[in-house]
Specification:
rod-shaped, cell membrane, phosphoprotein, single chain, transferase, 16% strand, Heat Shock Protein 90, Beta-Lactamase, 479 residues, alpha+beta, five-stranded mixed beta sheet, HisK_dim/P_sf, five-stranded antiparallel beta sheet, kinase
Amino acid sequence: MRLGIRLLFAFFLINGIAAFFVLRVFVAEIKPSVREVMEDMMVDTAHILAELASDDLAAGRLQAGDSAFARHVQHYASRPVDAAIWGFSKQSLDYRVYVTGATGRVLFDSQSEAVGQDFSQWRDVALTLRGEYGARMSRDTPGDATSGVMHVSAPIFVDGRIAGVLTVAKPTRTVQRFIDRAEHKVLMGGLLLLALSAAVGVAVTLWMVWNVRRLRDYALSVQGPEAGAPATAATPALAVPQVPGELGDLARAMERMRLRLEGHGYIEAYVRALTHELKSPVAAIRGAGELLQEDLPASDRAAFAGQVVQQSERLQRLIDRLLELSKLEQRQQVDAQGWVALHDCARAAIAHTQARAGQRGVALTLAGDGASGPWEAELIALAIGNLLDNAIDFSPAGSTVAVELQGSTIAVQDSGPGVPDYALHRLGERFFTTARPNGERSGSGLGLAIVQRVVALHGGRMAVRNAASGLRVELILPA
């Protein structure tokens, strides 16, 4: 499972669990909170009404039915009302008021339903008569949770003693719509918060994955090619990613590690290949040196001395090209000082190899003007020169090596026997050589590796194929 999916899954899981419990707590607290506020208001109302009813109760007017308090309460119940409360319309007055005497028997009921009944066992009345806070919740319809009625009582004092109880009752369904709206708003707000949190989680995850991928791309850009693999494309190392926090520390640690480890595998592969290439000329020089220590005819001594010189030159060329290739492989980009004409680079390369071509009896020709571009002139001339050296080695005496320029493409065509098809794809590997027309393997296999690296640094590619009259190598530079 990818890092981004793991982060998203973990974030949504944590956020979902937290949102579930938080929303559950909010919703669970709304109904009790509303009822607590409702009860608090009913306590105040009950005590005010109890104070207003005390005179009539003391005078016995409540029992006689000639009570101003009772008439006012009856008139309250029949008052028309049309109040807009925070978006809801209230068109009825929902308080029920009843008064009991000191024995708990109902003396007055605003709904005229319970007069004369004994309420002394009801919790609200019984507790209030004992001087405690009396309140209860009951249901008009058993089993129906929406039919609850809250009762809050207050003592009626006459001469400092409790002479009765006034109870205010209110159905809970009158505030249920406020509870439902509050729950709906909380749920909608919770869903919105969950959506915003999810968006933040996605953004943070994308940011994290983007920075991790930058680190991955940086790590891939600085790793060297496998030993023996041709440099077929330019992969310049990226700059150290500028990422914050621990990821930035990791990027800088990777850069320090790269600097410490850079070149270890490269040197190891080079040492193995170089050791293999040095064995033959060193053995030849040693053998010729041992023979020269003996008393030899002048002709043999001259032959062995020439072999020593020849193998020494081979070692020198090998070392020079190794150093050149090593410098190229450590570079990540070209140093172009301006626009360079391919025609000038080709002329410089031909002038540098003209003497050697003359010794081998090979003619060099140049056709086409070529394009100009932001290339490094010395490297382009070096690549063309190595192609010419390779073509001269494979061309017979009296033949021609042609350099052709067309746009941003450089082609070098020799007149040699070509290369076997199985070996074409390996041309450009370090130390890979094919037999010369005379059967020798005097080459180091580094010339085309240098050419390949030069083209790769410029962002181009090298194409090799057998033509009708020999091997054709094309360097295709970006226009």
